[in-house]
Design goal:
The complex is a heterodimer of chains A (660) and B (310). Chain A is of the alpha/beta class. Chain A has four domains: 49-287, no CATH class; 289-348 and 452-513, no CATH class; 352-443, no CATH class; 519-649, no CATH class. Chain A contains 27 helices and nine strands. Chain A has helices at 5-18, 58-65, 67-70, 94-99, 107-136, 139-147, 149-158, 165-185, 196-210, 231-242, 281-287, 289-305, 333-346, 352-360, 363-375, 381-390, 392-401, 409-418, 423-443, 455-462, 466-478, 498-515, 523-541, 565-576, 606-609, 623-631, 634-649, and strands at residues 47-52, 85-90, 218-223, 248-255, 276-280, 551-557, 580-584, 597-601, 617-622. In chain A, strands 2-3-4-1-5 form a five-stranded parallel sheet, with helices on both faces. In chain A, helix 10 (231-242) links the parallel strand 3 (218-223) and strand 4. The longest helix of chain A is centred in the N-terminal third of the chain and has 30 residues, at 107-136. Chain A is globular and about 95 Å long. The longest helix of chain B is centred in the last third of the chain and has 18 residues, at 203-220. Chain B is globular. The N and C termini of chain B lie close together (6 Å). Classes of the chains: A alpha/beta (660), B alpha/beta (310). At the A-B interface, helix 1, helix 4, helix 8, helix 22 and helix 23 of A face strand 9, strand 11, strand 12, helix 4 and helix 5 of B.
Chain lengths: 660, 310
């Protein structure tokens, strides 16, 4: 069915947010990641701690394994083997759960209310699973009535008689509502009281006794958004995790780097390796950059296909991206070539040479570069024209680095006479070409070389965040909104210009910067971190001369790597929201103390400031300066900024040497 | 039932007295202590001192969930033990934040004590003009980071599939913060914008700040129209909330109903007033703290009289 770009954009806008949450089943809307075989939640016996940053696909991954997708009524591939592992997905109402606390209720009542609520919600989840599963195995409902162990257990748990799952659903909803009213009066008299572990240990064996088909099933209860529960509630769940067994395991999912407790309700701690297996999705994605990129492309195509665009000539039906049986087909050379060819057509990527060519085609840029080549390098008009026309990368980089001490005009002149590039000069061009492009863009508002364009760059900028990748694409497509031709198949989809993508990336980045203020509970601090580091790096990029390739990360100097609690708290939250990305320090040049880690500003913010998205050179920041950047008022920050500006702009040329 | 029985308003001028509106001086005025007062808060405090025989500070500690009145702290289930001791009580809505107003109004209502609330509209709010992409954006940064979004004790509610009614103001991040959090799972969002605003033209500030959030909200939640109530009009706002709530009042519809007071104090007061009158209504708050010099000047003065019928 033919549509147009405007219609597709409307549907894409919704699809981007669907990627975050909304439907519990992800059937036909999920692309299975390539790390699944070694991290198949259904096959892992241990209790699991699934961790991942926002946008990495954690919740989608979890929902894929849950009964909502595996036994979705539209899923035609359900077999008895699917029953081996039944994943229950519980996303607690964490705002309400956190409000149930001992500070205003008593410790005892807060515990009773939480246990009652979690019992009801997990019972709802078990009932939903039964409802979904029995659609594929109708004999289950008959067996429940025939043998009655399940309904008898339900009677024990609820003190009520039920003869259908629908009535049980209604009862649970009413009980949850009553419980919420009772919390506000702190009255436990007429409220449902229970224990989710005891309930599941009573109910699940009864279910298995009634239904032979479930006799070998293992049940995995996943608690999502675990980090948003209160500490005492986390301790309750940790106690369950500690005592997970083969039949019923308790598992959690939370943001990577979130602060959570390892304590149980008793004296024991829950310990990694012994008590649970950690699966950190960010690390799995980082393991294979090529897989991340290809998966991003597949997710984009799947998202486009869900807007109604047809992919008639695809070697693989895109709906099968969510089918584990097709994982090997996705490694097929023809299929991979097909996906890449579409992506390369829609989101073409300029090479560094092309970017340099685009740069030197601008009149203002020609004037600036020619001036330096003539005055500082001593070239005649013909040589300048030759360089600009045939070797824009050399011309542009020379403009960027001519003030460096180690740079000699002779390098350019030798090249012009011999047409052979000195290896050291070649290395400098490789190192400084991008930095020169950024500097040229920042130096002149009339110059806007599309350095953020291209599918591959979108992957780097999105940095293992699929939602950001889709945002970059969506905002780029919006730049083509005057394209009105009908679109039926993917071949009708317009090819974006470099400038479309560059603008799209900038718009997506502006929104990402804006969003930081909403990151609870330190939104304004995180927003200051992004805006002030973005501003500092921009200042650094714009320096009088390029003494260094692009800077977009830093390390904080400290004595023996010890930070104050205040700084540690800020760093923890910044990492949790992935405003900053932490890396082990690559090289310690600190003269005053040691730095164990360095921090990169998330590259999604780079286009907003016109700075690099590549992790290259780092900046040294003192604890005091970091504090000013995070918490200082505007006067304090202006003083700091002036100090750095003087350091970068007025020290005269110096050579920073080669890259680490 | 708590009722708003009188509303007096006039322009502020030096020498003005509340006694001209209400008769005698107040027995007790309750304010929030500021460790770092600015010109406006000092001016208001001086004014209130002249209107009341006694002045006491109050604050709410979100960590311990205790309401402090003077040096005495009280748990939310012990408000009946507070001995107000006075007949004519004034609450200062300029300094008291949403949680304090909520619990003081609750405590007074529980003891069937009538009270007045005083509010001065400001002449201007502080702003900065910052570049965002190619354009300069006027941003109102009136608050500092707080402890994060939480439901308020006594007014907690389930949030899954809930109907949220939010009053939105000049600070972009507050409504957006509610929308972007992974924790809340609203089914419907209704927004109330303060129109007419304190000054003509200020409505644009609310729209500018919340345009993206409103657009998102319209696209993703079923109530795709914003409501308007005067930025200084708790009556009108209360009525809007009552209409929005009416489907939820029926026993067959147990959808949670949550209020988020994120804009002017008069609209926040209407939400508090409503939650006190309707059992089961939740209040969610982001606990942002007030910045020094966030607003300047005293414009219109409002005095709302609440009567408690037990």
């Amino acid at each position: 069915m033919a549509t147009n770009l405007s219609g597709i954009l409307n549907r894409l806008s919704t699809a981007r947010t669907e990627f975050q949450s909304s439907h519990l089943s992800v059937l036909n809307s999920f692309a299975i990641p390539y790390y699944i075989n070694s991290n198949n939640l259904a096959n892992i016996d241990n209790s699991i701690s699934l961790q991942g940053s926002r946008g990495c696909g954690k919740t989608m991954y979890l929902r894929y394994f849950s009964h909502w997708t595996q036994f979705d009524k539209r899923n035609h591939k359900v077999t008895e083997d699917s029953l081996r592992s039944i994943v229950l997905y519980w996303k607690p109402d964490t705002a309400f759960c956190r409000a149930i606390n001992k500070e205003w209720l008593s410790e005892q009542n807060a515990r009773l209310f939480f246990l009652g609520l979690s019992t009801l919600e997990i019972l709802y989840e078990i009932t939903s699973a039964l409802d979904n599963i029995s659609y594929h195995f109708p004999e289950i409902k008959d067996n429940l009535h025939l043998y009655n162990n399940f309904w008898s257990a339900i009677h024990n748990i609820t003190n009520n008689e039920f003869d259908s799952l629908d009535k049980l659903f209604q009862w649970i909803k009413q009980q949850v509502y009553s419980l919420h009213i009772s919390v506000n009066s702190n009255n436990t008299d007429n409220v449902f009281l229970g224990d989710p572990r005891a309930m599941s240990m009573l109910l699940i064996p009864a279910l298995q006794t009634d239904c032979q088909i479930l006799a070998k099933s293992r049940f995995k209860i996943f608690v999502d958004e675990f980090e948003n529960l209160s500490v005492s509630q986390q301790r309750i769940i940790n106690s369950y995790r500690k005592h997970s067994d083969r039949l019923i395991s308790w598992n959690v999912a939370h943001k990577h780097n979130a602060k959570i407790t390892t304590q149980t309700e008793g004296d024991e701690q829950i310990q990694g390796t012994d008590d649970y297996k950690s699966i950190i999705l960010d690390n799995l994605l980082k393991k294979s950059d090529s897989d991340y990129k290809f998966l991003s492309y597949e997710i984009l195509l799947l998202t486009l296909s869900r807007t109604g665009i047809e992919f008639d000539d695809s070697p693989l039906d895109l709906e099968n991206l969510g089918d584990i049986d097709y994982l090997s087909s996705r490694l097929d050379k023809n299929y991979r070539q097909y996906v890449k060819s579409i992506i390369q057509r829609i989101l073409p990527q300029p090479t560094s040479y092309e970017l340099a060519s685009i740069g030197v085609s601008n009149k203002s840029a020609i004037k600036k570069i020619s001036h330096v080549l003539k005055k500082n390098i001593g070239l005649d008009e013909a040589s300048i024209k030759y360089l600009l026309d045939n070797h824009p990368d050399i011309a542009l980089t020379t403009w960027g680095i001519y003030k460096q001490r180690s740079f000699s005009p002779q390098l350019v002149k030798s090249f012009l006479s011999s047409k052979n590039l000195d290896p050291a000069f070649k290395e400098k061009i490789n190192t400084y070409l991008y930095a020169s492009v950024f500097k040229l863009n920042l130096d002149n508002s009339y110059i806007d070389i599309p350095i953020y364009s291209g599918a591959d760059r979108f992957c780097t900028i999105s940095s293992y965040n699929f939602r950001h990748f889709l945002d970059l694409c969506y905002h780029s497509f919006r730049e083509m909104s005057d394209f009105s031709d009908p679109i039926t198949t993917i071949n009708d989809f317009p090819c974006l210009t470099y400038q479309n993508m560059h603008e799209g990336a900038r718009n997506a980045s502006i929104l990402a910067v804006d969003e930081t203020t909403t990151f609870s509970p330190m939104g304004q601090t995180l927003s200051r971190i992004v805006k002030r580091f973005g501003d500092l790096f921009k200042l650094c990029h714009k320096g009088d001369f390029l003494s260094e390739p692009e800077v977009n990360h830093y390390y904080i100097t400290s004595d023996y790597g010890q930070f104050s609690d205040e700084i540690l708290g800020i760093l923890e939250i910044a990492k949790c929201w992935r405003v900053l990305i932490e890396y082990p320090a690559t090289k310690d040049k600190d003269r005053h103390g040691s730095a164990l880690y360095e921090y990169q500003l998330n590259p999604i913010y780079s286009p907003n400031f016109g700075i690099t998205y590549r992790k290259n050179r780092r900046l040294e920041i003192s604890q005091d300066d970091f504090r000013v950047i995070c918490l200082g008022d505007s006067d304090e920050y202006e003083n700091l900024r002036d100090r750095y500006k003087n350091k970068w702009y007025k020290h005269g040329s110096y050579d920073q040497g080669t890259l680490f | 039932m708590l009722s708003l029985t009188n509303w007096k308003t006039c322009s502020y001028s030096p020498g003005i007295s509340l006694s001209a509106h209400r008769g005698d001086k107040y027995d007790l005025a309750i304010v929030r202590h500021s460790s770092n007062p600015d010109d406006r808060s000092t001016q208001i405090l001086d004014f209130i001192r002249g209107q009341s025989d006694n002045l006491i500070c109050s604050s709410y500690d979100s960590l311990t969930t205790k309401l402090y009145i003077g040096n005495r702290s009280t748990g939310v289930f012990d408000f009946s033990s507070i001995n107000f001791n006075y007949k004519k009580i004034l609450l200062d809505a300029n300094s008291l934040d949403v949680p304090e107003l909520l619990y003081l109004m609750t405590a007074l209502h529980q003891q069937c004590i009538d009270f007045d609330i005083l509010y001065f509209e400001p002449n201007e709010y502080s702003y900065t003009d910052s570049p965002s992409g190619d354009i300069i954006q006027r941003q109102f940064e009136l608050s500092n980071d707080g402890s994060g979004i939480d439901l308020l004790p006594l007014y907690t509610s389930l949030t899954k599939n809930s109907h949220l009614v939010v009053s939105i103001g000049f600070e972009k991040h507050r409504f957006s913060g509610l929308l972007s959090t992974d924790e809340l799972d609203f089914d419907k969002i209704s927004s109330i914008i303060g129109i007419p605003p304190f000054y003509t033209g200020w409505e644009r500030r609310s729209f500018d700040a919340n345009l993206d959030a409103l657009h998102y909200s319209f696209n993703h939640y079923s109530d795709n129209a914003y409501k308007i109530a005067g930025a200084n009009d708790p009556y009108r706002s209360y009525e809007i909330i009552r209409r929005l709530h009416s489907p939820h009042a029926s026993p067959s519809n147990s959808k949670p109903f949550i209020l988020a007071p994120l804009s002017t104090k008069p609209l926040s007061i209407s939400m508090i007033w409503f939650a006190i009158n309707y059992q089961g209504v939740g209040i969610i708050y982001d606990f942002q703290t007030t910045k020094v010099d966030r607003s300047q000047g005293l414009s219109k003065m409002h005095l709302w009289s609440f009567t408690s019928i037990c």
